């Protein structure tokens, strides 16, 4: 009796196992392809997704935390300084220029104003944060530039010359700093000037620091920034697309906000950002106080006025 019972139990167990196997097979055949496919199909899907993620990534999503699989494909400079494959794009594309004073004085070299433009060397064009730092970390700092050398960082397509249509009707904010007293600080000041330029914050509304969202490059006032090394001083300048020869009257008015035209306010805001957020002075402080005759205040002058012996200037 016990033998018969054990055989029955054994048969029942076999039947249950067989039914269970059939159910597994049936369930597997009804699953979507993504769940029942082989590992090679899964790998292909993951690769496609990774490619899509990589092509669609933007600066707004770079800081987001993704899955481990995403991080294996998308690598920012914050994750690997040498092998990143994602860049943080700049609002504008910028070009660094350099003029070589050695060429001016070299044998057979041309001299004078006519040859100046020919001596400007186009170094590199950048359009991302990573490219900017790669450039900055591999060029001579301003403190080591020879006298009469200049760096020009201008928006791509704009030549650093008055004759360029983008600069013809413009002007510049500038400051001169005594060379002997500024050698330790000039590198930082030039770096901050460039960062404000490529970050589009020089045109921010002062003191709110809200960037001006221009609809086109023609609406943007800043065209470029310049670092000039001279025997007795350094000069940092910010070039603008437009100028206002009555800017001094607007800046000196007791009812400043009421007196400023829209253009005057934008130009003055650039100067204020430069003085306070780049150079580190208080707005009402005198930048050249107690310095040698090579120092100046933060000044604005149109290119047209700068050609005159005593052209108009606006001082902040």
TrEMBL record:
Acyltransferase listed as a keyword: no
Sequence intervals crossing the membrane: none
| Regions of compositional bias (Low complexity) in chain numbering | 1-55
Which GO-annotated molecular functions does the record name?
RNA 7-methylguanosine cap binding; translation initiation factor activity
What Gene3D superfamilies would the database entry show?
RNA Cap, Translation Initiation Factor Eif4e
Cite a single Pfam family from the UniProt record.
Answer: IF4E
Entry GO CC = eukaryotic translation initiation factor 4F complex
A Gene Ontology biological process noted in the UniProt record is:
regulation of translation
**Region of interest called Disordered, as start-end residue ranges on this chain:** 1-63, 293-316
- In terms of superkingdom, the source organism counts as Eukaryota
For this UniProt record, give its keywords in alphabetical order, as a comma-separated list. Answer: Initiation factor, Protein biosynthesis, RNA-binding, Translation regulation
**What is the protein named?**
Eukaryotic translation initiation factor 4E
What is the species listed in this Swiss-Prot or TrEMBL entry? Tilletia horrida
Q: What is the lineage of its organism?
A: Eukaryota, Fungi, Dikarya, Basidiomycota, Ustilaginomycotina
